[in-house]
UniProtKB/TrEMBL annotation:
It comes from Didymosphaeria variabile. This is Cytochrome P450. GO terms for molecular function: heme binding; iron ion binding; monooxygenase activity; oxidoreductase activity, acting on paired donors, with incorporation or reduction of molecular oxygen. Keywords: Heme, Iron, Metal-binding. Signal peptide: none annotated. It holds the Pfam family p450. InterPro entries: Cyt_P450 (IPR001128), Cyt_P450_E_grp-I (IPR002401), Cyt_P450_sf (IPR036396), Cytochrome_P450_monoxygenase (IPR050121).
Length: 292
């Protein structure tokens, strides 16, 4: 109860500052009016929007990052290629930030896309409904007229494993996203919908890519990681193979997703040890603990 009171007090205090006090959620939504009543947002409306953003922006990015590390740990050639790209593009971990250098790491982006393709952060069917009152427009799918009021949707996981769009769909192949064939590239991008598309597309898409890119790039700059070689039970946590015989991160659907694993062993790179001491002000005891 004390936590909710603290959050409520924070929202009330922020509203008292006014729209132009800072650039945040309130700055953008304060002018939104109910089209029927003309009323602005109430406290409970702001609360519900803010509460939605936590899982929407947290659980999904967490799944994307987890999936990327999972597949990279199981495809050593992809791991090596990405490590080389990151460690050749930057001279220090401090350099890794949003900008042209990071966006120029095309294999990094390909790895993120491929991880989200195989294990979409939201893998479910996002149902839509043609309004009952919309009698002037026919909704036709593959020659079939869909009556108003019918719920329709395409399952994201199924779409991402359609062999017509993604050959060898259960295999982690980041290089497929670097294919310069325009026809193939368009076909893949049209079928790739981890953020949904159209008017219901995720507004945080650019931020999610930025967060994932920075997190993975910094991980590869500072650390090496591998599967726990001497503990098979720990190594298999979160892994399923029953669909294709290839390793896949199991994600459970709860609109977003939840997952277990993977268990990985991280070690600090020799090249990063001194940098962490100088720039991050970590103690040598902490660095040695990371390195052990």
């Amino acid at each position: 109860m004390a936590y909710y009171k603290k959050v409520r007090d924070f929202i009330v205090a922020r509203r008292a500052e006014g729209k132009h006090a800072r650039r945040d959620l309130y700055s953008f939504v304060v002018d939104i009016k109910d089209p029927e009543t003309g009323e602005g947002l109430r406290l409970r409306d702001i609360w519900s929007e803010a509460a939605f953003f936590v899982p929407a922006g947290g659980d999904t990015t967490s799944t994307a990052l987890t999936a990327a590390l999972f597949y990279l740990s199981r495809y050593p050639e992809c791991y090596k290629r990405l490590a080389n790209e990151i460690r050749n593009a930057f001279t220090s971990g401090v350099e890794i930030r949003h900008g042209t250098k990071l966006s120029g790491c095309t294999y990094l982006r390909a790895c993120i896309d491929e991880a989200m393709r195989i294990t979409p952060p939201i893998a479910t069917t996002l149902w839509r409904q043609l309004p009952e009152s919309d009698n002037e427009q026919l909704f036709v799918v593959e020659g079939q007229v869909i009556p108003p009021g019918t719920e329709v949707g395409v399952n994201i996981y199924t779409m991402h494993h359609n062999e017509e769009y993604f050959p060898d769909s259960y295999c982690f192949k980041p290089e497929r996203w670097l294919d310069e064939s325009l026809g193939r590239k368009k076909l893949m991008h049209d079928a790739f919908t981890p953020f949904s598309i159209g008017s219901r597309g995720c507004g945080g898409k650019a931020m999610a890519y930025q967060e994932a890119s920075i997190a993975i790039a910094k991980t590869f700059w500072y650390l090496d990681f591998e599967r726990p070689a001497h503990d098979m039970k720990a190594d298999r946590v979160g892994e399923i193979t029953q669909y294709s015989g290839k390793p896949e991160l199991e994600a459970l659907d709860q609109f977003a997703s939840v997952h277990r694993g993977p268990n990985l062993v991280f070690r600090l790179r020799d090249e990063a040890r001194d940098e962490l001491f100088e720039t991050e002000k970590l103690s040598y005891s902490t660095i040695l603990e990371l390195h052990s």
